[in-house]
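Quick board copy: two proteins, each given as sequence then tokens.
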Amino acid sequence: MKVLLLVQKEQRAILDRLYDGIAAHCECDLRWLTSDDQRNLRGYFQREVDVTRYDRIVFFLRFKQEVRQVGFIRTIPNLVILEHDAYQNYIECKYTGKFSAHYRKLPWARVICSGFVVGERLREEGFDAVFVPKGYDQSLLQGQGRERDIELAFVGSTKSVAYSGRKALLDELGRVEPLLVTRTKSGEEYCDTLNRIRFFVSADVGMGEYMIKNFEAMACGCVLFAFDQGAEENRALGFVDMHNIVLYRDIPELREKLQRLREQPQLADEISRNGQTLVEERFTFHSLGKAIVDAMQPPLRERPAMGWFERLQSWWGTVRP
């Protein structure tokens, strides 16, 4: 299968190993699109792409730019959309409902999304949605066997509107527990910091799926305290409370389990080992690359021929809702 994979050149997350994982399981033409390229997809395709050469054309681009160019995107054959942010469709933020509205204009496209429940909800709305979870870069992040001199911490951003629930929970926890909230550079500094943390607090409040940080913290041997995203999501990922992860619904439950693990360090060690084993077996970018390729393989829905009015709309980059 010949795949054209279009990804963001300016992206904060380092996802190179995920792209390598995809390329290892198909004939992959990887292109890094600048912000200007993403703003003018028509121009980029006219200059750089012969769509007839590919069995699948995969977008892993900024949703903000995709929705502005749906008229042109409707002309692209064999379209697959890889999306890590579709959970925002179902939470209170500026993109509430907008993913559904976008996909409704592209009903033949396959959407590979990173949340199990999100995928179920999109399928219930009639979309060709497939679940492949988030994971971690196995070449950058692993346990180092070093002393963990930070007991309780969170590493990452709390500034986005989508993270408002995260910030509120961390602020509340920080008033009653010695919580460190910090940021680091990606790569070595991030890995070193995770390896110093005993208990990593993930606060993906109300998001409906687990963010990449959960898998990264587990890979580095932290005991992961994660806001519980529900039985269906946990079952799909193999998360088992107090076995390979610590799940909580509110601060009192988090503190009760934290105190238990402070008193039972052997149990904490066991949860850490089990969590690390789980992500090493199932959630490396190498493994997920294969899962993404497998998700692309089945035949796509037929894309109907465009009428003259739709062709005109596509030329101007617009399409009626």
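And the next:
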Amino acid sequence: MAQIPRAVVVGGGIGGLTAAVALHRRGWRVTVLERARSLEPVGAGISLAPNSLRALDVIGLGDEIRELAAWQGDGGLRTPSGRWLMRTSAAAMGERFGGPLVVLHRAALIDKLAAQLPEGAVRTAAAASLTDPGDVGRPARVGTSDGELEAELVVGADGIHSAVRRTLFPEHGGPVYSGFTTWRVVVPVPGTAFASHETWGRGRIWGTHPLKDGRVYAYAAAMAPAGGRAPDDEHAELVRLFGDWHEPIPAVIAAARPEDVLRHDVHHIAEPLPAFHRGRVALLGDAAHAMPPTLGQGGNQAIEDAVVLADRSAPEGPDLAAYTADRKPRTTAIARKAVGVARLNMMRSRPGIVLRNATVAVVSKAGPGLFLRSFDSIADWRPPRPPYASDGAHTRETPA
């Protein structure tokens, strides 16, 4: 009887768990090592576009997540005064790309992914270090407090400050500061109805999106020196920066408590890695290609990575060179585009802002199709093959 191949996933976030589920479905014995004491993520939302939803079809979760879509009508882009610069349409997006944009709490997705894994596959409070990347003739090794684990495949899904990446590519400079910081909050906002929107100001942006469970996911960003913090608390900082912007922004801020507000500086990998693998180790998600959140594709690309890696990892042996060839060009292009969008929406120059807003308004008059065209090479992505399992998952076709 052939030995069941072993995979160790370092990191229990969305990308790592998706990879674990996809590998498990392909016949691998999977162990997920998560250094935190639980899988419960820091409270924030995530937007899943049709490309990652099709990837989730591969592991049988696509339709479950689509059912959590709350954005059914029009949304768009606004100025701080409330003027609409551009209207976007959920129906137009669904028609063009074959599915909705789903905004949900990260914890909901984490729970659904973890539920697909066998009992005991996930180990929390389990710090890990790559001690040997392995090679064709020997397994990789991962050190833990309980001893070393050997595996035919190790997946580095340990985030933007990945220790696995530093071990594989010690000569690489790692992530750089993107020039701005972000705040995120998920709160109920009673009695407030609004269209999903993003608002662009001068070196500042705000986004507000309803969730299926009735809460609101909001995020904000502002140009700021790295490592900065509010002199009092981050809730007060949001009041100072965004309290006089259009509704529902003040209402969302008022509904949040100081402890609800998360602040994180944004970093990205400016210089692409030479490869997304070395030996028997593959990197995915932020560990491989961290990007600014301006296209909302960070988590989406991690999910894509995960199903492609599993597809390239037959039980008789993974083809990690093919994984790098599949993923590096695409994620590098999307990361560069996200950096460019950050320069646009975090602009500080008043003349530049006037020109930017006027251009957006002109594009808006041409209808949502012109705006959506910029996502044609992103949201229309398809997995390399149909779902591995035939238990109801399916790949939706994009209308012609």
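Board note added afterward: The CA atoms of residues 142 and 148 lie 5 Å apart.
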